[in-house]
Specification:
- The protein is mainly beta.
- 8% of the residues lie in helices and 38% in strands.
- A hairpin with a 4-residue loop joins strand 3 and strand 4.
- The longest helix has 10 residues.
C-alpha cells in the first residue's frame, strides 16, 4: 500500500519552475487556489507562504499527489530539519469543496521582505 499525500505547490516546484524536476515523477492533479488567509513573500530567489488573516486574495498554485518517499525528499529540499519551512495544512477555495492539503509554509520572519501578489513567477 502506497501512502499518498496531497500537496499545494506555489513556487519553484511548479510546472515550468526551476525545481520542478523534483516533482516530475509524481501526479499533477490540477490548478488550485488557497482561501484568502495567506500571503507570499519574496525570499532569496523563491517565495515563502505565510498565514495572514488580513489577506484578501487566495494564493494560486498547483495540487500534486506525492508518495511517502517523494514527501521525504521534498521535506529535505524545503529545509524542514533546518527550520526554514514547516509542512502545514492549508485550506483551498479551488478546487471547490476539496479538503485541506499540506503546503510548505515559511517558518522564519518575513520582516523587511517584499510582499508579493497571489502568483509566483520565476525570475527571468
Amino acid at each position: 500500500l502506497r501512502v499518498m499525500s496531497r500537496l499545494f505547490i506555489y513556487g519553484t516546484l511548479k510546472r515550468g519552475g526551476r525545481s520542478h524536476a523534483r516533482l516530475s515523477r509524481h501526479q499533477f492533479l490540477g490548478l488550485a487556489c488557497t482561501t484568502p488567509h495567506y500571503r507570499l513573500y519574496r525570499l532569496d530567489g523563491y517565495p515563502g507562504l505565510v498565514a495572514d488573516s488580513a489577506a484578501t486574495v487566495g494564493i494560486q498554485g498547483e495540487l500534486w499527489e506525492v508518495d511517502a518517499a517523494g514527501l521525504a525528499e521534498l521535506d529535505a529540499f524545503e529545509g524542514l530539519a533546518e527550520g526554514l519551512y514547516r509542512r502545514e495544512r492549508v485550506t483551498l477555495s479551488e478546487p471547490a469543496g476539496h479538503p485541506p492539503v499540506d503546503a510548505y509554509v515559511y517558518a522564519r520572519s518575513v520582516t523587511g521582505r517584499e510582499m508579493l501578489g497571489p502568483v509566483w513567477t520565476e525570475p527571468r
